[in-house]
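EI: anyone free to look at a 179-residue chain?
SC: sure, send it
EI:
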Amino acid sequence: MAAKKNAETIVPTAEMAQDGTQATVTAAKQGFEQSVAALKDGMAGAVAGIEKTQAEVKANMDKAMKTAEELVSFGQGNMEAVIKSGQIWAAGVQDLSKTLAATAQAQMEQTMATWKALAGVKSLKEAVDLQTSLARASVEAAMSETGKLTDASMKLAEQTFAPITARVTLAVEKFGRAA
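SC: here you go
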């Protein structure tokens, strides 16, 4: 009887142990599944965050590249304006130099003609009249040529600075709008 009683006690205890083990396994399995689900959710969130950051970085890099390209293009335009300005200035100075040389040559020819005429004068009054005439003509020519030279120089300055002024205007329009 004692063996029977022991057997009756052992069977429910074994069943209880088995039930406890199953409950533990089930709880462990649920805990593991919850951990895996939480890990998957965390990884999905991390991947989404990384993808969002990557998209933002790409967009910002695209903007930076576009800005860099615009700055390089703008700088190139500035250099072209400076070169064009230099070409205009060089051509203008060359023209002014030719004008000055022609004026100097005309003055020299007039002076030589007066000296030749002075060599053939017959009176002092005639010599003074020739000298006065030369002086008057020289002053009038100098005044006339100075006016022409001033006008040509001003025009050259305007033409020389026109390409640079256009670039400054563009810069103000372009970058003044951005600010």
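EI: The chain has a mean pLDDT of 86.
SC: 👍
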